[in-house]
Amino acid sequence: TQEKVVRRELSFRPMEKFNYEEITASRNRLLRLGGMQDPYFKSVEVDVDPNGQTRIVDGKMVRDIIVQLKETDSFGRIRLAAGISSDQGLVGEIALIRANFDLADLPKSFKDMFVDRTAFLGAGQSFEISISPGMDVSRFRISFEEPYMFGKPLSFGVSLYQWDWSRDAYDEIRSGINLTFGKRLTREWVASMRLRVQSIDIDDIDTTAAPDIVEVEGKNSLMSVRFSLVKDIRRIDRMFKPYTGHRTFLVFEPVLGDFSLFKTAFGSTRYRTVHVDEEGLRHILKLHAEVGLIFGNDSPIYERYYLGGTGNMRGFDYRGLGPHQNDDPVGGDTMFYATAEYTFPILGDTIRGAVFTDIGTVNSGVGEFGNMRMSIGFGIRIFSPQIPIPITIDFGLPIMKENDDDTQIVSFSMSIGY
User: Fold this and answer.
1) How far is CA 163 from CA 52, 132, 133, in A?
2) Alpha helices of 61-179 — where are they, by DSSP H?
3) Helix (H) or strand (E) holding 65
4) Which of these, 139, 162, 319, 382, could form a disulfide with 175 (CB 3.0-4.6 Å)?
5) Among 157, 32, 140, residue whose Cα is nearest residue 96
6) How far apart are the C-alpha atoms of 292 and 288, rounded to whole Å?
7) How far is CA 53 from CA 50, 64, 283, in A?
8) Residues 35, 284, 84, 175: is their CA dihedral positive or negative?
9) Are 288 and 372 in contact (CB under 8 A)?
10) Which helix (H) or strand (E) holds 11?
11) Phi-psi domain of 61 (left: phi exceeds 0; alpha: psi -120 through 50; beta: other)
12) What number of CA atoms fall less than 13 Å from residue 358's CA on the CB side?
């Protein structure tokens, strides 16, 4: 791993005021590089005054900080995975993943490429080719991301993709390309722009399908430019679990093509550790709220907002909350969603419990926030870095709903990979 990849994750600098929280946060960021399945480092140690030689420089007490890293043995793998969820059904995956990728590090020999596997390695980029066949949804994607272009806090990403989704009343096929450019303004603020070019094919429509579905039958095209501004001051532990701080976002996206509209969304998620037990395990409160609006009189169903299912408005079926036509969900131009969730350890951090309440609405007209729905419930989270089978199960009970809404008490997701 190149030294610059390590240094840019450190949020402390020489001759700055000593801050132990920034040292801890920097260590956690280094441990998270590459994700849980493809970490860059097997261990990260940050020692303060390892020799006990605090000294005075320019009238200031100076402490040495030594960062020691042990790299993992391999960067890159073929992932075989399978997952099942109440939203997407059964999905498999075959992926070629190269973590800590370096596009400029060309192989010098066959051994570099296939034996030692030291080619294309060390610059902190990412590259992935994945095929995900499924019963209801199938995906194909090729992606590349450079988080630091030209040694600057500028990111670039490109993704080519196609996914096929067999919905209840029609089939939806999307293919396209995304180009993403980002700039880290400060340690907390990131601005980004995403160019999206897509072809959407709506076919195999049921004879009783909703008029809004029939309206977009056939191939449609769109191009959009999405501008976003994000402030992220979350603290995240080694289990990729936020435990304090917040993440706030603001998004604007003009969409052109066969339909013209303007999308905007804003929201915030806050985390607070309300209790730490004797073993250092945290009880965490999560508060989240967001609003989405679409301006334009002819928004197609595939660009509208939906609610319901795993991760939002539990107690309702996937896309089951909001406007319906002929019993088919058709989404809306106004969305509001908020949740309060309290998670706590049951068996270490491997098994955690959750209690929650969700509130939200989706409406056809811009700025219509009536017909609020509400649900309460509890759930369980199972996750272990040694056994990569994350499981989420939630039991939600709607206590405020509309007659057209589709409800679902249990929502779940589970995946396993090698």
Assistant:
1) 58, 9, 9
2) 110
3) strand 65-71
4) 162
5) 140
6) 14
7) 8, 8, 38
8) negative
9) no
10) none
11) beta
12) 27
- Please provide the size of the chain in residues: 418
Instruction: Specify the pTM.
Output: 0.85
| Rounded Cα gap, residues 111 and 117, in angstroms | 7
Q: Enumerate residues 6+ apart whose C-beta is below 8 A from 151.
A: 4
Which CA distances in Å does 269 have to 235, 266, 276, 301, 377?
12, 11, 21, 27, 19
Residue in the block written with tokens 């990403």: 157
Asked whether the beta carbons of 338 and 358 are under 8 A apart, the reply is yes
Find residue 45's DSSP bridge partners. 68
Torsion on CA atoms 409, 272, 228, 318, rounded to nearest 10:
0
Nearest CA among 363, 372, 289, 373 for reference residue 329: 363
Q: Which two tokens stand for residue 35?
A: 């994700």
Q: Could you tell me the two tokens for 254?
A: 């003009």
Q: Are 346 and 379 contacting, i.e. CB atoms less than 8 angstroms apart?
A: no
Q: Which residues touch 65 (CB under 8 Å, ≥6 apart)?
A: 12, 23, 46, 47, 48
- pLDDT tens-digit readout, 101-149: 999 888 888 777 766 677 888 898 999 999 999 988 999 999 999 999 9
Q: What residues does 270 pair with on adjacent strands?
A: 246, 287
Write the DSSP symbol of residue 297.
Answer: T
Question: What is the Cα–Cα distance from 157 to 177, expressed in whole angstroms?
Answer: 11
Spell out a b/e string for 291-304, using b for 16 or more CB atoms within 10 Å of the CB, else e: bbbbebeebbbbbb
Note the pLDDT tens digit of each residue in 68-105: 999 987 666 788 888 888 888 888 889 888 888 999 88
Tally of helices (H runs) and strands (E runs) in the chain: 4, 25
Q: Cβ–Cβ contacts within 10 Å for residue 11, how many? A: 14
